Amino acid sequence: MSEAAKRPPGFGAYGDPSKKSPVIAESKPTPNTAAVAMTDGLQEEIRKDVEDIKETAEKAKSYEQILEEAEVSLDKARVIVDDLLTKGYYEEDVPVTKSSFVTFRTRTHSDYRRYLRAIEMINPKYIDEQQEIQLRYFLAASLVSFKGHAFEHPRPNSSDSAVEKAFDARLEWITSQPDTVINLLAIKLSKFDRMVKIVMSEGVVENF
Question: What DSSP element (H or E) covers 30?
Fold first, then answer.
């Protein structure tokens, strides 16, 4: 009997039957690229919509949180917004000591332009000098009353000469005060300005 005949079935060309045959992975069909792209696009759109809704909710919530941190009630914020939109300015009594107050009002764009003209005319050489001019001009523009002393603020439709005359009177009073008084008023005005800026932050109209 030949050697080939002696070999058991499955031996020879098919290898040793005691050894496992290699596993051949099944081939997978090529995915439909257009369908995958469409699915991915829809998922991306859904994700963006969810993020937009979340962002809108966070903005509305953060505005109230910012007001709370600044110790400004929502009712007060409404008053400030209403006054600025209807009257064109907002006024508030700010305590200086236990028995004295200063009344400030928000400034207009014309007040800022006046300050720029002063800078151009005076032409300060040092930043400290420029800041001192800004301090006096902003105080003069915002000062309404101090310790019972009321200062004139002509109506918006008044003549330019009347507006400038009233401003010059306030500026003259400020210039004649001691540095300690001016520095104290400047600190109070800075807090007042910051409060109004917080209330009138981006998207404020949508909150009312």
Answer: none
Q: Show the tokens assigned to 154.
A: 């002509």
Domains identified in the chain and CATH numbers: 89-199 (3.30.2220)
Nearest CA among 67, 72, 68, 108 for reference residue 88: 108
Q: Which amino acid is at 145?
A: S
pTM of the model: 0.68
pLDDT tens digits along 119-131: 999 999 999 999 9
Q: Report the C-alpha gap between 129 and 119 in whole angstroms.
A: 10
Report residue 139: phi and psi, to 5°.
Answer: -65, -45
- Distance, CA of 141 to CA of 114 (rounded, Å): 10
Which alpha helices (H) appear in the chain, and where do they start and end? Answer: 3-6, 33-69, 74-86, 109-122, 127-142, 160-175, 179-199
